[in-house]
Amino acid sequence: VPVVKTECKTSERPVERPLRGGGEAVMLGRAPSSKLGPKVNIGGSVNNGSGPASPRKGAPVVDRQQANPPTQTTHLLQRQGVACASRKDLSLNALDMSEAVSSRDGAGHESIADTPAWQALVDHIPEIEETHLRYLLKDEERCLRLSLEHNGLYSDFSRQRVTPKTLELLFDLAKEAGLKEKIEQMFQGEQINETEHRSVLHVATRADRNQELIVDGKNVVKDVWTVLDKIKAFSDQVRNGEWLGATGKPIKDVVAIGIGGSFLGPLFVHTSLRTEPIAAMKAQGRQLRFLANVDPVDVARALHNLNQETTMVVIISKTFTTAETMLNARTVRKWITAELGESAVSKHMVAVSTNVKLVSQFGIDPDNTFEFWDWVGGRYSVCSAVGMLPLSLQYGFDQMEQFLEGARDIDQHFLNAPFEKNIPVTLGLVNLWNISFLHYPARAILPYCQALSKLAPHIQQVSMESNGKGVGMDGKPLKFEAGQIDFGEPGTNGQHSFYQLIHQGRVIPCDFIGTIKSQQSVYLKGEIVSNHDELMCNFFAQADALATGKNAVELRAENVPDNLIPHKTFTGNRPSTSILLPELNAYSTGQILALYEAMVAVKGFVWGINSFDQWGVELGKVLASKCRSKMNSARTQSRLIETSDGFNFSTTRLLNRYLKGKTFLQYPEPRDVFPCDLIDSENCIPPDDETIL
């Protein structure tokens, strides 16, 4: 990337730096000291964040044009001037920029981007821009330094655009941000979620039974295991046939109703274990389905071919008021009672909630309510009853306890390992380098394992809901990029979908995840490799293709016509991390979950943002409530939306187009209406009926 001299108002002299350089950030130091009395054993050696010894000098230098894809250079050129501390950040999406501009121009507050550690990384960018991964990968000492292993989980980040010096500077930044102290505060139960005045203790949901962690005078680990023991007893009863449905038949099928973290996390784990031999054997003859979307199509698919007599429904809602979840719960409740009567609810429906009163009013026996706590965020709740109850009903508690052990293993590694040996800390910092310094806006999560097909959607929520923030902990706008767009698809499916873009279009750092052993073995006579070897050959090849690319010299040596050389050139120098697991089972599924959760926390702690609230999801809910009220008014009065209903012109037209398309504008007289293949009653809708509500 070209280097320019920029006159910065806050600088005493012209500063030579890349076209994009950091900016200012709002950095919150250590959270106010908690008065809680934690007794968690921090243990282990404590690294001061200083990182490894000075790196080896003399990294290979290449021509800049070769090192940097034109698309990237163009992208960065468009953002000239970001290096100045007094800049107006055009990347902020706000209706009124005056407040943001005022707070930035006024300076006067400490920012992580104002620190020497941040500036050292900014100054380091040109050094990285002079290198190319094609040559960096020839440095064996560097490659050895840029790989870490812990209890079978192996990470190789030598294909990231970093050197040992980059890591040293990132560890300095982590020290400046108080990363070690913030990690300890989280594990000690301090209220680091300051906007909601809550502790952040998803790590407690998989803590060892004998650990002690005091929050508000209570040992929360004891509370966790009280619920886990209850889950074990209940799931054992259901699975061994002691718990019978209303008609005396054993429960074989489970429908888990929840949305967001109450759905994506458990679905990820379920998909991971479905074809694992031991888990599959434990689940034989059983079904676990999920109902999340309020779309009636999702209801129909979740209940298709299920028998009410053998179905258990788990309703997952902390407050028991989540609009989509509770409408789905009432819908499925009607599906059960229409066939089995009202008394069947206590035998076929249980809840994961903190609101025992509303659970009881719904008809569920309070004894069949499984608790979780406000210090567990929804997207971090899969290790609580949110995930453990439905998954234990499917696979048995013993299998799911191994999942908790895997997550606990990474938690302890995250807490205790020195930074230079700490996988989540190191990968989190490298990810932050890509976002805030190299300005890559997205990350592709690419598991070369079909059983991890739901990992990317889950981490998409964990990452984007946690770190998709525009202000720091003090409420002032950030002056650098934070958060990223996460997406992904299992290989090799993704190769035939979006890999064209990541090879020759935008630069998108990738996480490749593979396993040494497959859950299922297939090898055909006459084939030169097994099916899993074929898959993993692509795993190894794609990372190298992104890193090394293919230039014009190589193409001409292959007699490629000159007119096709620009089209067949691969610039390379596109970063990725490779993660290799021995196999995918309950334990390693817990490891990979905790790894990504910890990486999210690392970035948030360094950026000085609150990774544990989610105010950005609230406004849409409020507007949907208004829309719901006006929709009811229109359809009960057989009218269209009017200007007086308070919607803007565009929304009014959209709503009326929707209403005009209904077969009948006015709702029928109050009654339950279902497709006949779900509930066969006098009010049901036959498949060929045009009565579409």
Give average pLDDT, whole number.
86
Biggest pleated-sheet summary: 6 strands, mixed
Strand content: 5-15%
Structural class: alpha/beta
Q: What is the distance, rounded to the nearest whole angstrom, between the alpha carbons of the first and last residues?
A: 57 Å
**Unreliable stretches covering 5 or more consecutive residues:** 1-109
H/I helix tally: 26
* Cα shape: globular
**In total, how many beta strands?**
15
Could you walk me through the main structural features you see in this protein, from its secondary elements to its overall organization?
- By secondary structure, this protein is α/β, with parallel strands linked by helices.
- Helix content is 42%, strand content 9%.
- It contains 26 helices and 15 strands.
- Strands 3-4-15-14-12-13 form a six-stranded mixed sheet, with helices on both faces. It has a five-stranded parallel sheet with strand order 8-7-9-10-11, with helices on both faces.
- α4 (116-129) runs antiparallel to α7 (164-176) and α19 (455-467) packs parallel to α24 (586-607).
- The longest helix is centred in the last third of the chain and has 22 residues, at 586-607.
- The radius of gyration is 27 Å and the shape is globular.
What is the compact description of this entry?
With 693 residues, the chain is of the alpha/beta class.
Structure keywords:
693 residues; alpha/beta; six-stranded mixed sheet; five-stranded parallel sheet; disordered N terminus
Task: Describe the secondary-structure layout.
Blueprint: E1 3-6, E2 15-18, H1 64-67, H2 70-77, H3 98-106, H4 116-129, H5 133-136, H6 140-145, E3 147-150, E4 153-156, H7 164-176, H8 179-188, E5 214-215, E6 218-219, H9 220-239, E7 253-257, H10 261-273, H11 277-282, E8 287-291, H12 296-303, E9 311-316, H13 323-340, H14 345-348, E10 349-352, H15 356-362, E11 369-370, H16 385-395, H17 397-416, H18 423-437, E12 442-447, H19 455-467, E13 485-488, H20 499-504, E14 510-515, H21 531-548, H22 552-557, H23 565-568, E15 576-581, H24 586-607, H25 618-636, H26 649-660
Parallel strand pairs: 7-8, 7-9, 9-10, 10-11, 12-13, 12-14, 14-15
Antiparallel strand pairs: 1-2, 3-4, 4-15, 5-6
